[in-house]
Structure formats: structure tokens, C-alpha cells
Amino acid sequence: MVSDFAVTRSIDGGEGLEVVPSDVHVDESEKVVTLTVDPVVATTEDQSVVYSVSYKSGTPVAAPAVTVVKIPVISNVSIASNNADNTKAMIGDTITLTFTADRPVYKLSNFKLNGSNPDSFTNVGNVYTATHIVDEGDLITGEPASFQINVKDDAGIYSQTVESTTDSSSVTIIPKYARLSNIHIYSSNVNPSIANLGDTITVTFESDEAVTKLSDFKINGSNPATFVNIGNLYAATHVIDEGDKDGNATFQINVKNASGIYTPTLETTTDESSVVVSGIALHLATEAVEYAEDTRLQDDVAAAKLLVDALPADVAPDTSKANLEARLAAITAPVISNITVTSNNANNTKAMNGDTITLTFTSSQPIEKLGNFKINGSNPDTFTHEGNVYTATHLVDSGDSVTGDPITFQINVKNEAGIYSQTVEATTDGSSVTIIDKYARISNVKIYSTNADSTIATDGDTVILTFTTDEAVTALGNFKICGSNPNSFSNTGNTYIVTHLVDSGDTPGTATFQINVENAQGIYSPTLEATTDGSTVVIQ
Question: I want to staple 304 with a disulfide (CB 3.0 to 4.6 A). Which of 288, 360, 444, 490 is the partner?
């Protein structure tokens, strides 16, 4: 009887748990008893199982350990489609499910891909692949396709059912769109990989069903000039014009099928064909130069120069860019720079009758002076140059008014081609010259002593200061020698002699002086405190 036997089961050395036999069988010899118990459920790990049996409360007897082999372990589960977007699949696409098993396995009948038996089930080593060709039976739900991996090993041990990927991959069934293939691009040029102005670029492709062109179907950014088909072979064209840019021609194939389903945009050929658009930039630059040559307007010249400058450098023997640059140079107005104005007056920002005002500037090219080139309203007295540095002078005379404002000038020149510069009326360094009232010019300033050594003066010696003026002058109250008023102030014509008798009140050292005079109009000359010949007198 079953109740006569007590059975315990220990798994992996754990505590023995009682199990109740479901059947007892005694053989004919009545010496061999077979007990039937519930099986140990296989897991993902091998299990060591030990049974102990006692009869009528006798001493338990342990059987040798037996191993319950683990179930097949499935890993590296991934799913993908052969669609251009491998996360999507439509009718005709193949969904591929791959996984790794830890031992050889065989597909069970409940192994499914989106509810269907796999179309193929193969393996390379322990890597298994199951495929399913999408057909009308695959519903469009917006949800990822389902699968159930169910396999068994050689011992008939079943794996657990696996229904999710380990890499988060998924495939969703989508409506069928037209499949495009054999995409090719070429030009009508002798060299089909190059397109110049007026050449026609053609894009061809095949479709597995009838399609119509969408508004965003473009070739090089433009709508196709034509779009035709013969059966499932389609061709779209574009004629190269001035709106195209140099470089690789682009395209965007955008079509829909009779059901209104859009094919994903395609922008590359399947045979690596390509077309390079060239000569457009050179054509536009040439046209711009020709226009500027006609108008001679500097705004047009500047616009043309931008296009010419943007051209790539010439590669021998091509001299296209250099030729255009030369043509532009011939019609480009001189550019005036480095403009400065100065006077030869002791104060080079002032000028009076008899002073010379000098205007200098640099020109970007050889030039000649125009009739409206003026300095303070007068034609230059001289106009010379060294290289591209030009100098114009004006001798100030009674016609130059004393206004208190800087003098004016207008630089107006033309180049050898007769192209006029823009009128320039301001310096680039902020320099300026202002006309002032005429004062006496003082020159030949010299100082000496009556001492035997004319560079030394002691008590009783006379220090003599001489200078020349260009007009009659009188001494001002602040005319000094050695800090004192002169002992005498006389002249012979325009040569003036001023003296000072040295006495004990003079401070030893270099004698000082301040020449301060005014002319007949009461205009003061600037104070002078140094000789023009370097002479000095030391008081001892």
C-alpha cells in the first residue's frame, strides 16, 4: 500500500521534503518495488536530486543522486526586417528572428512569427534564424509583430516560451508602398557625369507598382521639367540653368502608389552614379563682368568682383578666373587710402601766408589728377608721386581765408583706363590744417657773449641774441634774456639785436631766452626759446 512507504526528495542538497507516491508496483518476485512520484520541473540550471525511501517507518534508504538537466536557454534574441527601415515591414518584406541556444534545439509546432509558422528555420552552430514573409494575412495594427520561440533539445526538454527581444528590437507591419530600385542619374553632356549650362540631368528608377510624382519630387532643388514612364520604368528630367549651383547634383524621389501610400524619400542612386554640375559660377561671374564693363558703375564692378572672388583658383592650363580678374581690374576705380595733410609751419596743424600745405595719399593703381582736384579751393601747386604714394601741395596765400575751420580738399583722380575714383574729402588719420593769421617768421636765431670765449659770460660781459624776421616786429613785455628784460633791442633792416649785461644777479648756467614779438598788425609770433644754429652761452 502507498501508505506503507515514506518518500523524501532533496534538491541540490536542500532540505528533504516529503513527496507522496502516486503509484506503487511490486514485481512477481515481490522483492522489487517501483514507486511513481511527480517529476522534478526542469529549470534554467541543472538540478541534483536525491530520494530517500523508508518502509513501514523503517530506516530511510537514500538512492544515488540523479541530475535533472536544465531546459534549453535562449539568448541574444533580435528581430529585423529587410525593409529599407528595418523596424518596418510591409507585404513582400521578410521578417527575420534570430536567437542563440545553449545546445542544439528543434522547433516546436507552436513556434510562431506574427501568428504564422516560420517560412524557414535554420542554424549556424547555436545561432538560429527563423523567417516570415509578410503577406495579406499580417494585419496592420500599429503594434510590433509578435513571436513565440518554442524549442526542445535532443532529450525532448522544452525551452520556456520567449516572446520578447533582448536588444529591444521590433518590427511593425505598415501599409504597402511602392518599392523603388535601379536608381540611376546621368547628364546629356558628352561626359554623362558632368552637367553644364543647358545640359539635361535625367533620374531613372523602377517601381514594383504604378506611382505618381509628389510636389516635393526635386532634381537639384527644382521641380522636374518632365516626368514620364514606360511600364514600371520612370524618368524625371531637369535642364541646368542659371539657378543651379556648381557641385554634386541632388535629387529627392517622392512618389505615392494608387492607394495614396507614400514611398520613403530616396536621395541616392543604387549604382553609385552621380552628376557634377559645373561652369554655372563661372558663367554668372562672366555675365556680371560683362555687365560691369558696359555700365562702368562701381556698384556693378563690386557685385561682379564678389562673384569672381568666389570662383575656385585656376588650375593650369585654365586661366578663366585670372582673365576675369584682369578685366575687372581694368574697370575698377582707384582706391584711395592712407590720406594725411600737414603744414611746414612750426605747428604742422597750422598754416599762414607763405606756408606750404602737403596732402599725401596712396592709390591702389597708377592715377592722374583731375581738374576738380582741389586743396582749400585751389588747384595744387605741385602733384608728384613715388610709386603709388602721391603728394599734392598748396602754398598758402592771401586767397586762403582765416575761418578757424580746417582747410578742405577734394581728391579726384582717374586711372589709365579713365575710371574715376570716388571723391575723397577726409583724412584717414584724423590730421588737419587750419589757416591762421600771418605772424612774423623768425629765423637765424643765435646767441653769443662778448667774452674772449663767446660761449662763456661772466660779470660785466654782454650776452647778445640775434635773429632775423620776414617783417618788422616789436618786442613784447615778456621778451626775456636770462629772465630779465633786454638792456637793448635794436635792428638793422630785418636783423634784430638784443643784449643783456651779466651781473651778480644772474644765475650760473646756460643762458635762457624767450623771443616774444608782434608784427605791425599786432599778431604775436610763437615764443622761441632755442637757437637755430645750436649756439649757447654759459654764465659763470
Answer: 288
